[in-house]
Amino acid sequence: MFGSKRFMNYQRKQLSPDLTPLIDVVFLLLIFFMVATTFDDMGGVKIELPKSQIEKIEELTEKVSILMTKDNLLKIKTATDSGTNITDVNKEDLKEKLALELTKIKNKRVAIMADRELDYGEVIDIISDIKLSGAESIDIETKRK
After folding, report:
1. What is the pLDDT of residue 10?
2. In which residue ranges of the chain is pLDDT below 70?
3. pTM of the model
4. DSSP per residue, 74-128
5. CATH 3.30.420.270 residue ranges in the chain?
6. Residue 92 CA neighbour count, 13 Å, CB half
7. Which of 6, 127, 129, 130 is buried most deeply by CB count within 10 Å?
């Protein structure tokens, strides 16, 4: 009775977990963190902006910014609908390169992001170069106090 063939030939099935849902969850988490991550669009430029009590001026989708570090390094940052481009520039070529970048956008508005440690005369020289390159208005970006 107890030794019948039915119980003797019984083989246990091997159980293996289905990894498809696990892989789906991992890819969903990866996509979530890629979308939720903020990227630094300053291109590795370290600028300590001066502080101000004035609210931020309206954000534009197309914008040209001049980045000035305390080591007198200059960069032109152009933000358009197609992306952000940061170009190194020296002081002598600033007018020509900025005039070329201003032709790519509708509004001729330039923002200055200058380090607070910079000499006042250096910033004024850059402002005059910006005006000579064809900018209609100039914004000075600051941090809120």
Report:
1. 59
2. 1-12, 38-45, 47-50, 52-61, 144-145
3. 0.60
4. EEEEEEETTEEEEEEE-GGGHHHHHHHHHTTSSS-EEEEEE-TTS-HHHHHHHHH
5. 51-144
6. 0
7. 130
Tokens read off for 120: 């006042």
77 DSSP β-pair partners: 65, 86
Comparing CA positions, the residue from 144, 82, 74 lying closest to residue 110 is 74
The Cβ of residue 47 has, within 10 Å, a number of other Cβ atoms equal to: 18
Considering only the top CATH level, what class is 51-144? alpha beta
Q: Which residue has the tokens 């070529």?
A: 93
CA distance 35 to 47: 26
Q: What is the reported pLDDT for 79?
A: 83
Report how far apart, in Å, the C-alpha atoms of 59 and of each of 36, 56, 99 are. 21, 8, 21
